[in-house]
Write a structure and sequence with these properties.
By secondary structure, the chain is an alpha/beta fold. It has two domains: about 130 residues, Orthogonal Bundle (Arc Repressor Mutant, subunit A); about 210 residues, Dna Topoisomerase Vi A Subunit, Chain: A, domain 2. It is about 40% helix and about 20% strand. It has a six-stranded mixed beta sheet with strand order 10-7-13-12-14-15, with helices on both faces. Strands 9-8-11 form a three-stranded antiparallel beta sheet, with no helix packed on it. Strands 1-4 form a two-stranded antiparallel ribbon.
Length: about 350
């Protein structure tokens, strides 16, 4: 894969040189990353970028700095691939940050300038940031009866004590040596992961347990997709009973507006929502463990009623309207109201047995 990415970077550089040789204004064509250019592909069940593009020109006062920054990031990425090393996006910012000769102008002033340029490069040559050898902090944990090969090391996810395996951003580089599981359970909260991990839920129910720690990282979303596509494992998502839990599920399933350009490579359209739901609050007598929804929660739920992938789903319409009508929300930790092991020994086994999912 690195060879292909290197080729795309070289093509980008060659195109700029050709423009110069033809005495034309050098330009880089970049797909537009805006809501106006994001579409929901009903057939794929994913958010994708449309076909609108814009050109970034060197000889243009409004474009010149970003053109330079894009070329610098592309050059830096090619060096990483040539040397077969990785760098964090923070490392890249500091490595490229300097003052231009005979001026007071910096290449980059803040990392908030360099981060969007990485995404511009991703969409311009249609690759993942991780394939450019640019990484971010680890986020997400996993446990299960799985053995992987990661940069020469054999790692057994079933023998990592209480911690689990910390998911890196470079998940595309790992090789699965053994996968013995019947499904993947994705848990929004670290506390929920810890409860289920300590109770050996993944062992008893032959699953792979993944904790996202809130909104899942790109590496975590790619890991979920790989387990689903390469090993044909069903994916069930376990989140809070609020609009933000539903949104986390929708990001795993269909992608997000900000990352629509890579939805096909990191989303899992077949993922199903396991819970928690407002209906579960009444089904399992958790009313005393609910929290009053804030105005922002209600507003978010109303917005999600109109999401393309929720709008025509009667079950989701019912749950979102219940949030609004009852004015409540519930965290997955609310299950502890019925006992600390209620989540692992009663609620989840019951939901799985009844196949009580939202799609």
């Amino acid at each position: 894969m690195a060879k292909d990415v290197k080729k795309e970077l070289q093509k980008l550089g060659d195109k700029i040189l050709q423009d110069i040789e033809k005495k034309e204004n050098p330009s880089i064509e970049i797909p537009i990353r805006a809501l106006s250019n994001v579409v929901f592909d009903k057939k794929l069940g994913q958010l994708t970028l449309g076909d609108k593009t814009a050109k970034r020109y060197y000889f243009n006062v409004a474009h010149a700095k970003k053109f330079m920054q894009t070329a610098m990031v592309a050059s830096f990425s090619k060096q990483l691939i040539d040397q077969n090393i990785h760098a964090s996006i923070r490392d890249m910012f500091y490595n490229l940050k300097r003052t231009l000769p005979d001026s007071n102008e910096n290449t980059f002033d803040e990392q908030s300038e360099s981060d969007p340029i990485i995404v511009d490069l991703e969409v311009a040559i249609d690759v993942l940031r991780e394939q450019l050898h640019l990484t971010t902090d680890r986020k997400g944990i996993v446990a299960g009866n799985v053995i992987i090969q990661d940069r020469g090391d054999s790692i057994d996810w079933s023998k990592l004590g209480s911690g689990g395996w910390s998911i890196p951003s470079t998940v595309d580089e790992i090789t699965f040596k053994k996968v013995e599981a019947e499904f993947v359970l994705v848990v929004e909260k670290n506390a929920g992961f810890e409860r289920l991990h300590e109770d050996k839920f993944w062992q008893k129910h032959k699953c792979i347990l993944i904790g996202t720690g809130g909104q899942p990282s790109r590496g975590t979303r790619l890991l979920i997709q790989r387990l689903n596509q390469e090993h044909k494992l069903p994916v069930y998502v376990f989140c809070d009973a609020d609009a933000y839990g539903a949104y986390i599920y929708s990001v795993i399933k269909s992608g997000s507006i900000s990352l629509a350009h890579v939805s096909d490579r990191i989303s899992t359209p077949s993922a199903k929502f396991l819970g928690l739901t407002i209906s579960d609050v009444y089904e399992y007598d958790l009313k005393k463990a609910t929290i009053k929804a804030k105005d922002v929660d209600i507003k978010r739920a109303k917005e999600m009623l109109n999401y393309e992938w929720f709008k025509k789903n009667p079950k989701w319409q019912k749950e979102l309207n219940l949030m609004i009508e009852k004015g409540i929300k519930a965290e997955i930790e609310a299950l502890s109201h019925k006992g600390l092991k209620f989540m692992s020994e009663t609620y989840l086994p019951d939901k799985l047995k009844k196949k009580d999912f939202l799609d």
